[in-house]
Amino acid sequence: MASKLFDPVQLGALALKNRIIMAPLTRCRADNPEAAPTALMARYYAQRASAGLIVSEGTIVSAQGRGYPYTPGIWSEAQVDGWRQVTDAVHQAGGLIVCQLWHCGRLSLPDFHDGEPPVAPSAINPNWQMFSPEGMKPTVAPRALSREEIADIVVDFQHGARHAVEAGFDGVEIHSSNGYLFHQFFARCSNTRTDEYGGSHENRGRILFEVLDAVGRELPHERVGIRLNPMMNGIHGMTVDEDTVPMFESLIRRANDYPLAYVHLTEPFMPNQLDGVVGGIADVAGHFHPLCRAALLSNGGFDQAQAEQWLAEDRCDAVVFGKLFIANPDLPERFRQGAALNAPDPDTFYQGGEKGYADYPALT
Which residues of 26-59 are buried (b: 16+ CB within 10 A; e: fewer)? Predict the structure, then answer.
């Protein structure tokens, strides 16, 4: 079977040299008061420029959106300057990179907000443990956003997109998954609002499409992707129920009104993630791909053989790799040669510094 992994593919306005995508990977290396990308981060991303496309780590659109220590932002001039050195390095190495725009919502701690609770659609505690500079801490009940504050967040994403263009990114991805702010609006377990942002599928999806409209004023939608994780269950305080699949079907049908570069979908890959779940589906791409007009990226702990099978079966247009890219900066070449893969070291995923970050060896 000929591999499609190394075939070029067009995602909207993005012409990729292969179908091997580097996942957005939080690495907590922006360890400076400005929360700005560093020269070390530029080296790390440039090492991985052989990917068909790099999706940056989640990049916070405002101080309000913070949820983890040492994650980079894109709301200040210092942050834009920091990202510019990253995009320059990636482009000089022949790569493409989009900026994943992020707001954590209730998945945060008062530590990041001057002691005040984080914000969310509704005042519902996700009952999760979050990283802080002092170690793991339990979440608190968030404060429900007002309509005016939601409008401000839409503007923050628009400004984030503008700054991404100024920083030299090739596009943006809206992080609307994994239990963060947009996903909190989508799910009934985290959104009990009775205004125009709660209740119906249209209302719970409203903020995403307001953001897409706003972001589209800064760059063409052909350079914009969205990320969705419909089957996240028992993680980050999210639950799947009988409404989940219809809700995400509604989102994808409405997203078809935009000429998006891609839709990035996550498969269930945690053990027992959907055990006993009413409304759960094990095959996310198989269910949603027929509904989706944009190119589909599949993410879910794939190895090379699984990725090649999915592409051969036209289940997706490109495959997203996370941990394999952490440990293998030259992952596409290792796949091409059938070479051995470096094993990732989980102890260094978030610890800071070069170790376990920019020091994994390449083949040559």
Answer: bbbbbeeeebbbbebbbbbbbbbbbbbbbbbbbb
pLDDT of residue 188: 98
Q: Which of 21, 64, 72 is nearest to 352 (CA)?
A: 72
Structure tokens at 193: 């609002």
pLDDT at site 268: 92
Q: Whose CA is closest to 31, among 356, 364, 354?
A: 354
- Rounded CA gap, 284 and 136, in Å? 31
- For the chain, the distance separating the N- and C-terminal CA atoms, rounded to the nearest angstrom, is 28
Residue type for 155, please?
A: V
Task: Say if CB 35 and CB 71 are below 8 A apart.
Answer: yes
3-class secondary structure per residue, 143-190 = EECCHHHHHHHHHHHHHHHHHHHHCCCCCEEEECCCCCHHHHHHCCCC
pLDDT in tens, 276-334: 899 999 999 999 999 999 999 999 999 999 999 999 999 999 999 999 999 999 999 99
Predicted confidence (pLDDT) per residue in 83-116, tens digit: 999 999 999 999 999 999 999 999 999 999 999 9
**pLDDT score for 172:** 99
Q: Which two tokens stand for residue 66?
A: 């913070």
d(CA 209, CA 174): 11
List the catalytic residue out of 45, 180, 197, 258: 180
- Virtual CA dihedral for 133, 136, 141, 142, nearest 10 degrees? 40
- 68 annotated active-site: no
pLDDT at 1: 59
The torsion region of residue 156 among left (phi > 0), alpha (psi -120 to 50) and beta comes to: alpha
Domains, the chain, in order of start with CATH, read 9-348 (3.20.20.70)
